[in-house]
Amino acid sequence: MMKRQRTIPVLIVGLLILTLPAILLADEPETADNETMIIVVGDDGEELTIDMEAVHEIMAEAMEGLDEVMEELEDMQLQVRLGKDNRLNLSYDDTTFELDLDQIMTQVAVAVQTGFDQIHVEDWTDSRGRWSDVSEDDLRQELDDLKKEMKELRREFRKIRDPDED
């Protein structure tokens, strides 16, 4: 029910977005017979004529079809079980579909692994630890810098916590 209430405004906004440029760019009709026609003249002089009555008929048919679909969706039940069995059940009238999410994810993992196996990264990548070729002196200097930064952060924190102690 909530989806139907959201879908209609979305469709109306979509129609406005599609027809607004045509309305803004349209020539004024010459006679009263052309009131339901929009004529768009392109930069190259090519004319595009839009029959708004036909657009309204198409929209009415679409809305009827949408109402039917929404009514059918109201009767549909969806159950997701995550944990031990990882299943997704979709029930509609007398039909139930059950998907084994573990099996799907296993197949996806195999497909992804197969795809990655075909990519040869050895030529253009390098992997090593951050500190693998750093000397002990560099590590001590990094530790001293961190200690200084911690002292300064504590000092700033005290100023924020006790602003009267300055």
| Rg measurement, Å | 33 Å
The structural class is: alpha+beta
Ends distance: 62 Å
Low-confidence runs: none
Overall mean confidence score, pLDDT: 76
Note the main sheet: 3 strands, antiparallel
Number of helical segments? 4
User: Using DSSP, what is the number of strands?
Assistant: 6
Q: What sequence of helices (H) and strands (E) makes up the elements? A: HEEEHEEEHH
Helix content estimate: 40-55%
Strand content: 15-25%
Q: Globular, elongated, flat, extended or rod-shaped: what is the shape?
A: extended
Could you give the order of strands across the largest sheet? 1-2-3
Write the layout of secondary structure elements.
Elements: H1 2-25, E1 26-27, E2 37-41, E3 47-51, H2 52-74, E4 77-81, E5 87-92, E6 95-100, H3 101-117, H4 136-161
Antiparallel strand pairs: 1-2, 2-3, 4-5, 5-6
